[in-house]
Design brief:
The chain is of the alpha+beta class. The chain has 6 helices and 9 strands, in the order ααβββββαββββααα. It has helices at about 5-25, 30-60, 120-125, 215-225, 225-240, 245-265; strands at about 70, 75, 80-85, 90-95, 100-105, 130-140, 145-155, 165-185, 190-210. Keywords: Signal.
Length: about 270
């Protein structure tokens, strides 16, 4: 667990320097030379942050199981059991890092931290500072297809189809991930995933997948499945009317998988 200490400390130092330079640029607009130097330092800090984030992504994916076993998924349209997700280990960062800095203050009239304050209000209401929140936003891409396999039972208005083995291929995926680093004045630090949002999603393709040895009974049971009969219709639905619900399911799977792994691997600082 202690092997992740080396990551959080330089991440804190660089993000603190970066946020200081962002404030310096805002306050020194009348000093072009100093602003130019601050911008160079800002770019350098962001480059180092990129290196640290890339290293963190590699460390997380190294410890990730392949395939990633999923909890059963159930909704009004289908139930997926024995789900296995392939391809997460190939995730890489694909865009520059965006950094946001926020201070947490305990104002005298409020018993809880007020996180929705601006710089002018910080100066006017300096009561008790509780800590800082740093948010790092960046893109994650999957060079190869993401593939989901499992047993799916589809329910429609006219029939309920038998469970069958399916292979779902998701292509051209780009995800916007936001990491949140909370730094308390007591010295405690906590790194968490604030959210994972699908920004680009090329297409979804459904295929039936044989699960038996090819006996007549098993083939007949597989042929009664929805995908065996209507795979092309499933593709149309997934890339049309059901596109948004499926994206939400994918975001939930990604967020839960990476959040659980990050919580398991990082030390309790």
């Amino acid at each position: 667990m202690g092997r992740y200490n080396y990551f959080l400390l330089p991440l804190f130092l660089l993000t603190h320097i970066e946020s200081s330079h962002l404030q310096a640029i805002a306050l020194d607009e009348d000093k072009p030379a100093e602003t130019k130097d601050a911008q160079k330092s800002e770019a350098l800090c962001l480059d180092f942050l990129g290196i640290l984030i890339d290293h963190m992504v590699r460390r997380i994916t190294v410890h990730m199981d392949e395939p990633k076993v999923l909890e059963p998924i159930s909704n009004s349209f289908f139930t997926l059991t024995d789900g296995r997700l392939y391809g997460l280990k190939n995730i890489v960062r694909t865009c520059p890092i965006e950094l946001a800095h926020e201070e947490m203050w305990l104002q005298s009239a409020k018993p809880t931290p007020n996180q929705d304050v601006h710089l002018t209000e910080w100066i006017q209401k300096r009561d008790t500072k509780l800590g800082d929140v740093l948010r790092l936003s960046f893109c994650l891409g999957i060079p190869h297809n993401l593939q989901l396999r499992g047993s799916m039972a589809v329910t429609t208005f006219w029939s309920t189809y038998d469970p069958e083995g399916v292979r779902i291929t998701l292509s051209d995926i780009s995800i916007r991930a936001t990491l949140q680093l909370q730094l308390n004045m007591t010295g405690k630090m906590r790194l968490s995933i604030a959210g994972m949002r699908v920004e680009k999603f090329g297409s979804i393709r459904f295929e039936p997948e044989a699960t038996g040895s090819g006996s007549g009974d098993e083939e007949e049971r597989t042929n009664n499945g929805f995908m065996s009969q209507y795979a092309s219709l499933a593709d149309w639905l997934a890339n049309g009317p059901l596109y948004t619900p499926l994206v939400i399911i994918l975001e939930t799977i990604m967020n839960d998988s990476f959040s659980a792994l990050l919580k398991e691997k990082q030390p309790d600082l």
